[in-house]
Amino acid sequence: MTMKKMLLSVVTAALLAACAASVRDGMVGTVERMYVIECGENRVNDLSRWTPGVNVGKPHVFADHCYLIKHPTGGWFLWDTGNPDRYAAMPTGFRASPTAPITAFMKKPLVDSLKEIGVAPEDIKHLAMSHSHGDHSGNANLFTKALVYMQVSEHEALFGPDAKKYNLPVANFEFMNTPGEPAGVRKLNGDLDVFGDGSVVIKSTPGHTPGHQCLLVRLHRRGPVLLTGDLVHLLYSWENRVVPSFNWDVAESARSIDAMKAYAKSTGAQVWVNHDKDQHALIVKAPLYVD
Known about the structure:
Elements: H1 3-24, E1 33-44, E2 60-71, E3 75-79, E4 102-105, H2 110-117, E5 124-128, H3 134-137, E6 147-151, H4 152-159, E7 185-188, E8 192-193, E9 200-204, E10 213-219, E11 223-227, H5 235-240, H6 250-267, E12 270-272, H7 277-280
Parallel strand pairs: 3-5, 5-6, 6-7, 11-12
Antiparallel strand pairs: 1-2, 1-4, 2-3, 8-9, 9-10, 10-11
């Protein structure tokens, strides 16, 4: 090895060590900006399915959001993909069966919302979903160029023999379902600091599904924000530790809520509940952004 190469190697190692030390010491990075995109809504006739023992027979509208994040060096990261874009052509919404508890809507296709921002599906370099249910993975097949981050337990449930048992729509992941090991998938066993600077951190929160996960995003002005996915469905559920009985594992769900409450407290993070329509009414939407 030449002296020049040796010097370059030493400098590179020092820089990597400094970056790692800065994260350990609490000097974490931030993202440039985040777009909160309206990705549909889900209308129900009986809210008590999500709030056991309360709100019996009360109709409700759950919002549904996607979050597009711009990292200064890592590029575009998309969290959740919402209801399928094809629902935008269904003015009365989509209902899986006459007895299904949810009627799903999509007012504007996600691809159109991205276009307003100046982003095409192939521009998305990183994709993660809180979990694989259809209102979070509805447009996953659009992002064939992205590296997908998924918990091993979610991947095994999705591509194993019992996907229907977990109510996971395999068709939403056709781009991953290739012979052999799917390309472009990073399987996780727990938490991940996506860009190595603390600005975007995936948190493992099993319970709603086997591999459910939440996301911490550090914004320059607003500070840290915790995106809950379906850890909870309402701020009420967060505040009162409410777990629907239909979750994959109710006890595990409660433990994940407790863990994220402690995490939010330790990081000072604001908690944004994906499906809480009232909370998100106060948050600026794309094509504007938060930073």
